[in-house]
Amino acid sequence: MKNVYFLLMALLTLLACQNSSEKTANSNASLVSNKTMKAGTIIQQIQENVTCDWATQTVDTYKGGNAETQVTGIATTFLATYDVLKRAKEAGLNMIITHEPTFYNHLDETNFFEEDPVYQKKRDFIRDNDMVVFRFHDHWHRTQPDGILLGMTERLGWKQYEIRPNELLFKLPEQPLSQLADYLQKHFSATSVRVVGPKDMMISQVGFSMGAPGSQAQIKILRMDEVEVLVGGETQEWETVEYVRDAIAQGRKKALILIGHANSEEAGMAYCADWLKAFIKDVPVQFIPAGDPFWTPAVNEK
What we know:
Elements: H1 2-31, E1 37-38, H2 39-49, E2 62-64, E3 70-71, E4 74-77, H3 82-90, E5 95-98, H4 117-128, E6 132-135, H5 138-142, H6 147-156, E7 169-176, H7 177-187, E8 194-196, E9 202-209, H8 215-223, E10 229-232, H9 240-249, E11 255-258, H10 261-277, E12 285-287
């Protein structure tokens, strides 16, 4: 009888394990969608969900693939680097929505690169893997609130310090300029943060300038009486940098911290993935970071 009992218990245990495995397999299968969408349908839905009119003169266009490309999944990113393209392919995501250019210039003009092996390999990778690359720059900034600024405000942890929402101005707790620079360097794990201004200058009123809007846009923020330091992405070194240096030499309370273009905007494309998920339901959406490309040799202070 004991042998029959143990045999029965073993049989029941085996059946229970099989049932559990089937449930797990079914659950995992339900997470994988076999649906696809045309790229053009996705772009149409984006156009319907931004708050601004869609401009005819814009850099927000296809850089690879076309509206008829069947999309299996979407990757949002700050830059469609070759590495990002490979990681997207591995994840089964064949549509890349990038904030910045794919082919090394603002308009993605390729005539100069036609015989260039780096360009050719990237172009061919997009084509051979049936990928579509679409730039989402102008309208992501123009929609309200600005998608990049929204993501970056959250990433910086400055929401509570906004002077006026969506206006790039923040009033932080008073601190030395060096403390703010240290915070930004550690917060973004950035090795390329650069500062113009006295380390011990006490500051609290901060302007934020995403990406590389040009020196005039940056200087307009610095001219504001309520701005003591501008935190920006990048700039021409002989323009905004020298404006700040002269302002300091004249006794004006101004400073500049540059954190790098990627660091100053990338979080906005992480937010873009969440924004898309609200209305793109048939294919997966995922943020893939491009990251900060720079590193800096160690400098020993004496």
